[in-house]
Amino acid sequence: MNTRVYNAPLSDEKLQQLDLLLRDLDEGHIEWLLGYLSGWRAARNIAKCEYGQGAAGTVELTILFASQTGNTESVAALLADKAKASGMTVKVFDMADYKLRQLKNERYLAILTSTHGEGSPPDGAMDFYEFLHSRKAPELKGLQYGVLSLGDSSYEYFCQTGKDFDARLRELGATAIVSRVDCDVDYDNAAEKWMQCLISTLSKSSRAAAAPFSLPVLTGTRHDRRTPFLAPLLENQLLSGRGSNKEVRHIELSLGSAGLRYQPGDALGVYPQNDPELVAQLIQHCAFDPEQIVELNGQSCSVREALMSHREITMLTRSLLKKWAELAQSDALMKLIADKTASAEWLRGRDVLDLVRAFPLPGYDAAIFLDLLRKLSPRLYSISSSQAVVGEEVHITVAAVRYQAHGRERHGVASVWLADRLTSDAVVPVYIESNKNFKLPDDDDAPIIMIGPGTGVAPFRSFIQEREARGARGRNWLFFGDQHFRTDFLYQTEWLAWRKSGLLTSLDLAFSRDQAEKHYVQHRIRAKSREVWAWLQEGAYLYVCGDADNLAPDVNQALLDVISQHGHKSFDEAREFLRDLSRDKRYQRDVY
């Protein structure tokens, strides 16, 4: 196909070359190419840490992002594109890479941050956070800023890092040109409105000669959080042995010609469905007509479909309690909410069915009820495969969550849906969640130490597959643990084969219930403290994946003990040593 192109920025020769390259592509290839070019463009822009070179506008906007999973980085890239389209000059920095002394020179600043754990800054934001809250922080009377905070309202310290940044910038004399927005797990619409408000305000205040506020329109489907790909199920295999207290599954999905690309350390976003039995009980208790048609975000669906696929019904938040208390005019619920400790205890392990049973409100409309509930958010799973090995597939490792609480059996939304209710011809709505903060070293000769008990071992399977495919010569050491060797040694055959081949240099195991005294990975780290310190001195990269509440602090303390003992350092010196490793990307954590 020879297409006449007017006002093209390419020469005739390059246009002919492009035409030759594209003429034999089918629709699947074209969709893949669009996604590839979009990702390549975003990656190049982030790598350069600047956008809009040569823009004619007068606004110079600096965007700082800090993220544990990659969400804020994606929003930062989108904000940069929008700002550039409005005629601004834009610089984008991961907060961990930002030169702190530059802050006093900024005029326009956008901060996008998540909150880690119970109100802590993400790892990459720690230096900036401490600098900003220290006596070294400069006066910022000439700075105009905006803060976008991403979080999860089910946590007590919802969006705390963003709140802290906002308050401290005001204390230092800076002026907020837009109000801070605290986004819940379903952040897309709120983030979009905040970005539009920020750019509109900046454009007006500067009278910048901006281009029309628009983005180039690309045809074809680019699969992302808003437009997930329907991935066919290939394999759903039970990993746990007979008699295990756990149910862990290895799941393989086909990406086909979707054009989705991932790297070791990335996560797979999965859009699940709620338990049909729980949905039926909720509909029955509330006396809803399951076939009643309602409007959700401009789309029509039945009440049953809304509760199955579009609304969060297994997780309660204080925000929902407050809305329900106002609607039900319940003094008892108001009293419960007023006591933070009591309400937090009541929320633990309960769901929406518990709420409507405990504090009944007869005769309310299904549409009003659905508007109270959060959107059903995707669940993230560490990818346990390397695309260099499995091609157009993606593998995840899923522990089915089942437990008894408050007189009923409870199920994890996504984990039990994946484990129990997927038929052989099922498709799973998925997207790739990039995580630049959990990546293999660029140097294939660098040694790595991987610490991942339970399903925390998932990304390390992808790490080793990738290193084997690349012919990496760096040494690899895995610390793995679970309850029992016989039933819970996940991917045992693969790990032992890699150990035998020499690809896995060291394998240390901790099975907590195979002896009278419980034994965990942090105990193995201390037992091998001399070797761990030697590897660190030789440039090893440390990786930790798993539980944020128990594993992460216990392993962190074990590492501090190793550094203190063999590095002959005080506690503060050991902590600073570990912080230096983190700054150098040699201590990376994917904890949840």
TrEMBL record:
Q: Where is the Flavodoxin-like domain?
A: 61-199
- Amino-acid positions noted as binding FAD in the UniProt annotation, renumbered to this chain: 314, 379-382, 397-399, 403, 412-415, 592
Q: In which pathway does it act?
A: Sulfur metabolism; hydrogen sulfide biosynthesis; hydrogen sulfide from sulfite (NADPH route): step 1/1
Q: Which GO terms describe its biological process?
A: cysteine biosynthetic process; hydrogen sulfide biosynthetic process
Stored Pfam families = FAD_binding_1 (PF00667), Flavodoxin_1 (PF00258), NAD_binding_1 (PF00175)
Determine the domain of life of the protein's source: Bacteria
Q: Which reaction does it catalyse?
A: hydrogen sulfide + 3 NADP(+) + 3 H2O = sulfite + 3 NADPH + 4 H(+)
**Amino-acid biosynthesis among keywords:** yes
Binding positions for FMN per the UniProt entry: 114-117, 150-159
Span of domain FAD-binding FR-type:
226-441
GO MF entries: electron transfer activity; flavin adenine dinucleotide binding; FMN binding; sulfite reductase (NADPH) activity
By its UniProt entry, which PROSITE patterns does this protein fall under?
FAD_FR, FLAVODOXIN, FLAVODOXIN_LIKE
* EC number(s) per entry: 1.8.1.2
Q: Which sites bind NADP(+)?
A: 512-513, 518-522, 554
An example of a Gene Ontology cellular component annotation for this protein is: cytosol
Q: How is the cofactor bound?
A: Binds 1 FMN per subunit.
Which co-factors does it depend on?
A: FMN; FAD
Give UniProt keywords alphabetically. Amino-acid biosynthesis, Cysteine biosynthesis, Electron transport, FAD, Flavoprotein, FMN, NADP, Oxidoreductase, Transport
**What functional role does this protein have?**
Component of the sulfite reductase complex that catalyzes the 6-electron reduction of sulfite to sulfide. This is one of several activities required for the biosynthesis of L-cysteine from sulfate. The flavoprotein component catalyzes the electron flow from NADPH -> FAD -> FMN to the hemoprotein component.
Q: What does the annotation say about its assembly with partners?
A: Alpha(8)-beta(8). The alpha component is a flavoprotein, the beta component is a hemoprotein.
Q: What is this protein called?
A: Sulfite reductase [NADPH] flavoprotein alpha-component
